[in-house]
Bifunctional uridylyltransferase/uridylyl-removing enzyme
Amino acid sequence: MTHKSDSFAELIDADGLRDELSALTVDGDGSDPRIRSNVLARLKTAYQYGRDEVERRLREDGGGVLCAQRLAHVQDEIIRIIYDFAIWHVYRVTNASSAEHMAVVAVGGYGRGTLAPGSDVDLLFVLPYKQTPWGEQVVEYILYMLWDLGLKVGHATRSVNECVRLSRSDMTIRTAILEARFLWGDEPLFEELTKRFDEEVVKNTATEFVTAKLAERDERHRRQGASRYLVEPNVKEGKGGLRDLNTLFWIAKYAYRVQSGSEMVKAGVFSKREYNRFAQCEDFLWAVRCHMHFLTGRAEERLSFDIQREIAQRLDYTAHPGQRDVERFMKHYFLVAKDVGDLTRIVCADLEEKHVKQTPGLSRFLGVLRGSRRRRPLDGSVDFVIDNQRLNVTNESVFKRDPVNLIRIFALAERHDLLFHPDAMRLVRRSRRLIDKDLRSNPEANRLFLNILTSRNDPETVLRRMSEAGVLSRFIPDFGKVEAMMQFNMYHHYTVDEHLLRAIGVLSELERGNRGEDHPLATGLIKEIQNRRVLYVALFLHDIAKGRPEDHSIAGARIAKRLCPRLGLTAAETDTVSWLIEYHLLLSTIAQSRDLNDRKTIADFAAVVQVPERLKLLLILTVADIKAVGPGVFTGWKGQLLRTLYYETETVLTGGPSHVGEGRVAAAQTELAKVLEDWSAQEVEDYHRRHYPAYWVRVDLDDKRIHANMIREADKSGDRLATRVATHAFEGVTEITVLAPDHPRLLSTIAGACSVAGANIVDAHIYTTTDGLALDSIFVTRELPDDADEKRRGERVTKLIRDCLRGKEKLPESVAHKSSGRNRARAFRLETEVLVKNAVSEQHTVLEMAGLDRPGLLYDLTREISALNLNIASAHVATFGERAVDVFYVTDLTGQKISNITRQANIRQRLTEAFDGEGRARAAKPGQRAVVAAK
């Protein structure tokens, strides 16, 4: 599919270069090492000039396919020149035999006449018979020259017979030769290869080839993440990428015997408009890929965060209100990927209808194939029929006559669990313009849509088909505004629209009980809620206002108030949906960034929720929302935090205790005494006096028992430093308990040791005994699936903690070394925010910090807090992609809140510097002594 321009000749002066190289051999043979060195140097200069000129033109005209063709042209000429030099000046044969002929052939992607800056150069050296010494020498000379030029060359040397034989058995070789392009040498030999390949390999084997290519595509998609909406897509191999377009062309070339993309229109595969979309997608993807290779200086195929912004700028994208330049570029990328998906479905549908009949091997990929066509009426419908087990229209006027049918067809497919016939989907796409203001306000259309959205079967799949057909974005225009919208951060794995559809899928699975083991509370609660449709509507709309200048939760709530009545929801239902959207982040935020043992945290949250039903709805929505963000985002630890907040809040909402009383402390002490069976009454009484009231009401009974025995053993051994490791498989964390003499730098030391050991802290519970010991429980993310392996990993971390506390490890240097590695978050720019809050807790000042995450951050923050003479009561660490949110409950050294305005300002300044890494030098100054905290 190449269309060379005369300007290509300006990229490299092939004739002039040949003359220059020939002139180098006037005083010697071309095989002379000195002459070869001079030849190589001249080729390098010409080749680099050509590539530099190609990049300049790409920056100038933006032509992606043109760039790839220009690079292929430069490569073509270099190979031709090397070949000519080899046979005329190095291995010249005056009277060549029939065996001493060769065709140099480009195969694979290079065979299409397109080449990316960092791509491999795939060559096939075709011989008439078996290899000869002359042929072996020429091939070796060409390859070594190309390698010395710094090129990655894939190559094979085969006779015509070998090519044909291997193509029959090896689908990779068959695909490579399918795209073979003559470069230089004996052209009749190449023509013989293509003729025999066509007659002996391709003929009557379309089904076999198409089946293999679609299976290969599906496996490739599985490896790349099975979604075209991943926010760091693979431009070449990912779903909706260049390889998908290549696959379409391979299939068309094989099944329809076309030689170019434009011939696909003549063959009836594409309409002219569809082919134009094909060409536009190809050009855009090639432009992105070429820019990526030029920018990174390597064959980089993943459009990662650290290059997205610069690629956007190279392609001249600019920022708009609510969307950065990089987000607008990535939206365009995902719209192109969506178009590639549409084109794939069109080609597969055409294959099904015209070319593949009764082929079991293809049925997995193309659905029920058209053999003996069977049509039967669909019960209760005059506009739709079941055609080969698929939903089809009775005629092409069904949508024009009644536009509600554009929604009804999806409702019928959902109700009867039917696939869509390709003819019906093509007609739907052509009829999208019928979705106007009148249809959007039609009560029947909205009723049908609400039925689809709240289906008890598989609403995600039908909504996805509506989206792919372009119906969903026209029927719900606000959904169209977030279609293909990416958020430039490391937290969200998918585009906004993909996230919303996946969230509906997660919710449906929860309702069907398919995720009970992972989410027991949400699975149980969803059976108890009074109105399930408010939950589905709220989840579908919760991020509908992303990409706007204002808070998307507030704007989304306003959209819900406008849209819900249209969908048929009552005023009360609309109010609930609007509330859920406005507060859809609240449960997660409080669970991950607040001390859930602080009664004010629970009381304040309960005041917002007010009624148990809303608490249930919010918990279920939060689980589905987080789960749909991406693989691995919802962890067992997050689930535990959500459950804890839910149960504590439910207790308050149903009239349970909301404050800490002396009775609860006494009851907790009595409860512990009962399980300390081998302790004397005096030992128990003495132990009771070693803890402050907060400890008794916050810690679980089992943990109290473990702590008591741990402290008792430390007393007996005389070693006031002890550690313990416990794995929590369901929560996905490992708990490290440290007993040590209390001092302000204790948590900082533990955090630094964990950073050096590569252990990610997610939470910390900190208690101090009345006799000067600190009892800190640190929760780190679990890394290994086996409990025994994970426990050994935890023990390695605790050994490092003990070494650091005993001064055997120089922690600042170790953390600095660990922090100097590659940090993906550096691709982002976030302003650090430090808040000092006294209204959040009754006993503590809450320091809330958010900004760009980096290695060693928690260590720097805790060191600075200790340098500020603050005691940390609890720490809550959350990471949302590149954004870290760290919250500390602190007091001054007398146990009081920080109320002085000047001191608060100093804390904000110092912690901002520490967050940004500017406070490390000051915190490392010698001479600072530990201060024993009195509580």
